[in-house]
Amino acid sequence: MLRRILSMFRNLLRKRTVEQALDDELRSSVELLTEEKMREGLSHPEARRQALIELGGVEQVKEEVRAIRAGRLLEDLARDARFAFRTLAKSPGFSAAIVISVALGIAANATVFSVASGLLWTVLPVKDPARVVTFSESDSLSYPDYIDYRDQTAGVFEGVSAHFPFIPASLGGIGEPERVWGQTVSGGYFCLLGINPVIGRFILPEEDQVVGRDAVVVLSYGLWKRRYDTDPGVLGRSVLLNGQRFTVVGVAPVGFYGTDHGIVPDFWAPLAMTEALLPDIAKDQPRTNRDSNWLILNARLKPSVSRAQAVAAANLVKKRIDDTYYKGENRHRNPITLQPAGDCSMPLTHLRSP
Amino acid sequence: MSEKRTDLLRGTLDLLVLKALSLEPLHGVGISRRITQITKGAFQVSFGSLFPSLHRMEERGWLEAEWRTSENNRRAKYYRLTSSGRTQLKVEEREWNQVVKVMAAAVQST
Predict the structure, then answer these.
(1) Contacting residues of A for B62, CB less than 8 Å apart
(2) Is A277 exposed, middle or buried (0-12, 13-18, 19+ CB in 10 A)?
(3) Which of A35, A133, A263, A308 is the residue whose CA sits 20 to 30 A from A336?
(4) Structure pTM?
């Protein structure tokens, strides 16, 4: 694992040096081949000509090696993502997932995890933040569970959203590719938060209806500034995320970093695009498998509802799910709790696996 | 070429490279020549296949490389097997023998 991280570092941060080294090696190989053919009796120019033919074209060889390197990068990205996904899905606790993402973040140019998490924001920068909650710090939930919570809690919640917090991606299309981190969010995520984009719009509920259909993306303000120089012309343009074409539809406001404390995403795409961004995940049947717990849920309390009432309602749904599908077994160790979204009450020193 | 065939060929090349380096470190051209030698002239590895393969195996930690002066005072990048490379060679030899046994039986059966 350490060797792979070091090798990724070498590849990402010192691309030029590796290219140079390859150049040197190819040049040296031409000379060795030329020498060999001269020993067989050829003149220098003829030997060199044949050496170049035998090498097969320097550019071609370089392309092959580059392709291997790019392939490995995407392979590694996918493997990292699958690892992060499985770690979250086994629900050993969100805290463990953060530790994993730090380990992965070390290998990338951009890290999804902000060590200064306590300083990023103390109050979630959304409409009426006190009414926005996160489900269970210690358990993530599955997609079928999310649907049940969304549909069966209309009495206490104005809306329930789901998101997958760790999408490692290679961002390309305009300019050099760079490693970024994003999230996929359900159609109601931005509506629930009640914020306004800086330019453009957010993801619409209709854009999360069909898996793989709506390749739209919202950029973070930080990414918009850093890579696109706050150019409003970026709207409607196409970018490549993990080789897939996405259309930029909007930019999130300054200081908005999603709803998970300590994580700094660069982009948001519809939940329905998760499989397109991380193809390996499809093997876990994330849409139908109740045991694949990959999602973090948020909700907005209705105006007259207390958190206690909402917790009770959520746990009723949990019991119904356990009774119907798990013969009444208590599937997750803990009952559903609802933390205020972006609650600072989990200090960094609390990072241990339960 | 189907994916499976490419994998099979890639695996075969890896085994040949590991075998070629089992006695002493060699540079890229030397590895190509040694492979032709140990296959008694049957395989001429193209550099378009060899260099990506060397790069991949170096990333995996099976090979280590360093720049040295060759016999004729030329600077060249020499590859050598690491200890995990030596282990990998044994693994691949064993797997190859297994494949040969299985295929021979399958092809012979009626």
Answers:
(1) none
(2) buried
(3) A263
(4) 0.55
